[in-house]
């Protein structure tokens, strides 16, 4: 038998290494996403990517572990869903941070959506809101801190046993909303017991792709809805809740809402996974 040429052998070895890293066969992952995952893995020194723990309307979540044993959550947005396209258009229109963005193909829309969630997480994290720390994004892949223990995710507020649902958790969530508004100047827009993980009694806010600046036309309506969702959940659990209107008037009373507009060129394609912030958006 003839010997295999050297570069062929090398390629085969590389493929085997990649397969080691990503043992999960997943039909949701197209070639471009797969290649993106390989790049992200290299950048973060990932040892393994595990099977998805959630398949939502717009994305799948995969836990991953680096060689030091640190866990990450990889949020991989589907590249072609009408859902993401509709939502993206709705939630980026009127957001001054994304006004200059070029959004032609569905893929570029989804990439912008990924970037938007990263930016929202970054702004919230920097403002001291308890969200998973975002690390990098690349194309339709966002990498953030894994909220859980040893690859087992923390329960959602929705899944928390009744005896762990108390006023402290409620007040803590109101505090996170307050920081979001006053420091990050963002409205979550889809806050509910389904988008809060609770670890060591502390609520972590997740799923922030649709979050909008408070200057946006729809922000007040969305904020009211967020607070109503939280109040409804805790009231149903027998916790005494603050009236939505009085909480909102306290929160917004001294807030200076002005349009700090200005369009930004969000660029089109990245070539490398990035970690900084100014060069990303
Ligand atoms: N950082 C994270 N750490 C652990 N689990 C996560 C993390 N982010 C998301 N999840 C899990 O994945 C699910 C879906 O994530 P989410 O961001 O809410 O996407 P969507 O609801 O749009 O599908 C969450 O309900 C949660 O169970
Ligand atoms: Mg969600």
Automatic annotation (TrEMBL):
InterPro entries: Kinase-like_dom_sf, Prot_kinase_dom, RIO-type_Ser/Thr_kinase, RIO_dom, RIO_kinase, RIO_kinase_CS, Tyr_kinase_AS. SMART domains: RIO (SM00090). The keyword Metal-binding applies. It catalyses: L-threonyl-[protein] + ATP = O-phospho-L-threonyl-[protein] + ADP + H(+); L-seryl-[protein] + ATP = O-phospho-L-seryl-[protein] + ADP + H(+). It is an enzyme of class 2 (transferase). The keyword Transferase applies. It comes from the Archaea. Residues 47-281 form the Protein kinase domain. Keywords: ATP-binding, Kinase, Magnesium, Metal-binding, Nucleotide-binding, Serine/threonine-protein kinase, Transferase. Its EC number is 2.7.11.1. GO terms for molecular function: ATP binding; metal ion binding; protein serine/threonine kinase activity. Residues 262-281 are annotated as: Disordered. Residues 266-281 have a biased composition (Basic and acidic residues). Belongs to the protein kinase superfamily. RIO-type Ser/Thr kinase family. PANTHER family: SERINE/THREONINE-PROTEIN KINASE RIO1. This is non-specific serine/threonine protein kinase.
